[in-house]
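From the pipeline queue, job 12 of 40. The input is one protein chain; the requested action is below.

Action: predict structure.
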Amino acid sequence: MSVSIAMASSAAFSVSSSCCTLPYKIYRSFQPHKAHFLKPISVKASSTSLENQPIPLKTGNWQWKFKDNFINIYYEEHERESPKPPKNILMIPTISDVSTVEEWRSVAIDIVQRVGKVNWRATIVDWPGLGYSDRPKMNFNADVMEKFVVDFINAPDSPVSSSENDLVIFGGGHAATITIRATKKGLVKPTAIAAVAPTWAGPLPIVFGRDSSMETRYGLLRETLRAPGVGWMMYNVLVSNEKAIQSQYKSHVYANPDNVTPGIVESRYALTKRKGARYVPAAFLTGLLDPVHSREEFLELFADLKGKIPVLVVSTKGSPKRSKAEMEALNGAEWVSKFVEVPGALLPQEEYPTRVAEELYRFLLENFEFSA
């Protein structure tokens, strides 16, 4: 299965004691904010069921305590004014070098504008080490990322904390699979999950496998990327340059190369220049953030949720071959409540937000609004 957001099956990888080459992929960014309220914005509706009115956007930082680290986690909230109490949606970005809340923003605005029986509030959160969250030098792995999701949802001071069990989770790429793994363990208890272009294998493992020889090479690359001096040099060559970002966006992050504008490339490039930017990508690229290690384990995660909560899988028409195969393995599975396909590749919620929002809102209607 091809990598989670911005790097994937086109990687060319060779590591020896003296050399490592691998073009790989990424993406985006936007102006960081301290906790405050932004000027209300108005978004043109894509459906007659939408109400075209201003939506207040709140941004802030939530402090995550992990071991001896206190990490500022960036998030933003979208909510339409309504007398009805809101029901929460947590949107989690796909993990990649340029992962950020912005990939979900248009979808969030679209959904919360819709007027129905349920008043939806959307919270989008950046991963630790990515987006506009702090990027400490830590040993990131799948367990750390799962712990973050669990703590963010369950903490008494969490932006999505609630006295009722009313949380719906939308996740892209690895985020979806990590969330489902935590749900299977009973660590989080969402009322529904939507997995958008779900992935489970990092860019290099999906292409080159996980035998002992390759794992040794991944370890060498990972430690080199994390090292002072030479790590930044290698990161700048492989990741943090506009040509590489543009190439990978066009090859498999977006389905339509014409959608990869200079503005997108510039903003994604800016993310790669933030302090500590290389630590999570070093782990992701080499498979340390993979929540499972085989398709069988991937399918078992979903199978364990059968009959417990609704699960939507959103596949994409233009996904890289390996990633597409993993998504298609979920098509027709009795434990997947609904399987749909939309345009796009590894980041459909950003490239085709209106289509993705339509499918996600239909899922919400079928499971919550029709029965409300």
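Job complete. The chain has one domain: 14-369.
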